[in-house]
Amino acid sequence: MKEMLKNYKGKLILSSLVTLLPLFAGILFWREALILSGSFLAAHLLCLFFVFHDKKNRNQSKKALGLVFWLCPMMSLFCTACTYMALSETDASYVLMTLMCFGFGLLFVVCGNYFPKFRQNSTMGIRIKWTLQNEENWNATHRLGGKVWVICGLFMMVCGFFASIRLSDSFSLFLSAAVFPLLIVAAVLIPCIYSYVYYKRQVREGKVEKNGRTKPKSAALTIGILCAVALYLFYVLFTGNMEIAYGDTSFTIETGNWEDLTISYEEIEEITYFDQDPSHSVSGTRTNGFGNFKMSLGSFYNELYGNYTRYSFVDCDACVVLKVNGETVVLNGPDAESTKEIYERLLGRVK
Questions:
Q1: So where does this one cross the membrane (predicted)?
Q2: Which residues contact 143 (CB under 8 A, 6 or more apart)?
Q3: Fewer Cβ within 10 Å of end Cβ, the chain: N or C?
């Protein structure tokens, strides 16, 4: 480890400084910049520690080590750019989705090109039971894995192209919530399945001995990680909530998924209740905000309202439409009954 630190000391210092570049954006959003740069620097140093600690990496490909040195710094800059855009731009959602697709697509393409150059080790690459126990399996799996990652990366870039031309909000949600995660899952699972199939073929040909059963602890850890990922995806895609707090002079829409919205009763010029949201029949897009299969929050645009604000539950067709200082605000509750209650309570306070 000391020898590797000595050989790569300059690159270690330079890559760490690049990782901390987001701190220069701290004038605009110091808290986010500090969290991002600090987190990526910690991840960067931790990755390098494990890579340097592995004796097998002393003869590792310089290109493979170069990828490890610059992966976290580039991710730090990319995530900072996305965060800055999300916090400062009015019409940022499509740009962010495009950047995410192109950024991760490029990452997968670069990693895929480097995979075949990875020499067998215990810290980098596709590190599963069958690749770690057999060098031939390792090489074959990384050759195929490299191709799979490049193909998935190119498809991610295609998703970014479709996001950039703004076909529709529902199509963008489909890309971000369905296609993009499926490409990531495919990039992970296909090489693992191939490695197992390759191992079984080696067993049949008598090149390797049949391995024993997977240790219970390893199986439990794998299942635990998969469950955690599944729960996280479920939380992001299918959960969300908001409540309305009524004050004497104003009301506030409170939600943990996006910014709270406060509206003064005196600013409300018009209030209308609809059993069916009239904007459902026209095309529209989310320009900045949060959206999943349960909630739509933030800034939107459609042919009926133009630029407007929406805080609504996706499954509820009823809505209350407000005119606030000439701007349109659409909101509802989880169901028609609660939406009607919102309308009546606001109607009683509007002068």
A1: 12-29, 35-52, 64-87, 93-115, 148-167, 173-199, 219-238
A2: 115, 116
A3: C
Is the model's pTM score more than 0.90? no
Q: Which of 102-106, 226-230, 259-263, 301-305 has the lowest mean pLDDT?
A: 226-230
Residue located via tokens 């950039």? 164
Planar angle of CA 84, 86, 88, nearest 5 degrees: 65
> How would you classify residue 125: left for phi > 0, otherwise alpha for psi between -120 and 50, otherwise beta?
left
- May I ask the CATH class of domain 242-349? mainly beta
For 215, residues 6+ apart whose C-beta sits below 8 A from its C-beta are none
Q: For residue 111, count other CB atoms closer than 10 A to its CB.
A: 19
Task: Decide if 6 contacts 22 (C-beta within 8 A).
Answer: no
Radius of gyration of the chain (CA): 26
Cβ atoms within 10 Å of 45's Cβ, excluding its own: 14
Quick one: which of 276, 250, 273 has its CA closest to 263? 250
